[in-house]
Amino acid sequence: MYSYTYGGKKGRKFNLKVAEDRIAVRTRNARKLKDAVHSESGKEMLGNFDVEANFPEADVSVLQTKDDVADKENMRDEARSILKKEPELRFAGRVLVDENSQSPVLYTENLFIQFKESVSADRCEEILKKLI
Question: What is the pTM of this model?
């Protein structure tokens, strides 16, 4: 079990766990995932997953095993083993998820901020400029 606190020492604590059914994959050189996997075994392995989330700014995709995969943890581990051998992938690793929401929490050197859809792009820029 992992955890982090948002909002300083007295902030809200969030518990994380390792997802049995997901992997995070990061490509090299801003490649799309399908263009970065060249081996037949890698391409075949990707067929067992759906893209749950995509962060092209960081070249990261979160993949989730398809519903019909019986042993999701084994599939995750096998996929990591195979995809780590792909030269155009920086990593293929486990994914941490929020214990309550099951939403992925990625640990890259990038920061992702998502605004509500109702917030205009100009307002988003304005908010970010105040904080940077």
Answer: 0.77
